[in-house]
Give the backbone structure.
Amino acid sequence: MQLLESYNEYKDVVREIREKCRRPFSNVYFMQADMERYIRLGRASYERTESGIILFFDEERYYRVCICLDEKEPFSIEKQDKKILIKNVFLKGKKREAMQRVEQRLEELGFENEGTSVKVKGEVEKIFKRCERMGRYADALDKKGYRFLIADASMIEEIEAIILNSDVIKDYQLNYWTDEEKKEMAKKGCYSYIVDGDNHICGGGYFLIQGDTTIGVAGAIKEEYKRHGLAPVSAYHKLKWLHENGFKRGQGWILLSNKPSIKYHESLDYEFTDEYADEWILRER
């Protein structure tokens, strides 16, 4: 791999490809600011191939790989010291032939399709009104000693461990953040957790903020506290906090195989968009 030194270097490499192939296939979905962040952190690298480039973004636990190449030509992606994720975003019922050719090649290379996610979005005020009925359940749990709390930086490591130890969120679905970035997220109220009457942490989660919009949610309840109604009550408290703090919109991705989450979001009138994503994984060597 060759480390990307600047955003201009990235543009130059892509320009070279476009000179060879007028319409190369690309699953690059990073905004310029995101790309510049990975480059600044020294976590963006690339490999040239005969058909284009393979971009590697080091997410600590895995490599997120984006490609920009002529998909009609054969290409290879070698196994690395950690798993590789390739995420292909497409519109429902409109998966292009180019993407189908790429995915056929990924299968040949040993990639496995881990599932398809759908993008959901909604207005915070509208969704919160839909779940206000959960308030009485939240009050009942509150009387039993359960409390929903916004976390400071000291809780980040424990919250992340709960999420990673759950079956809900996979390690390849978590982006890399520096300690300083996490501390800034905590200052904004992005991390939260719930405790029982003995002050034992039962679960936790976090979300990202972009202006007045939340981008994605990762959260989990510890196994021994499941089936106590904590997950929907925790979601209620998060929505209440977002509503009270002036956030307007929320969006995220849900695996189609996660039927309880699909049903829950449908009940709150989230909008299920036509935007889908296939997640392809190549296991580490």
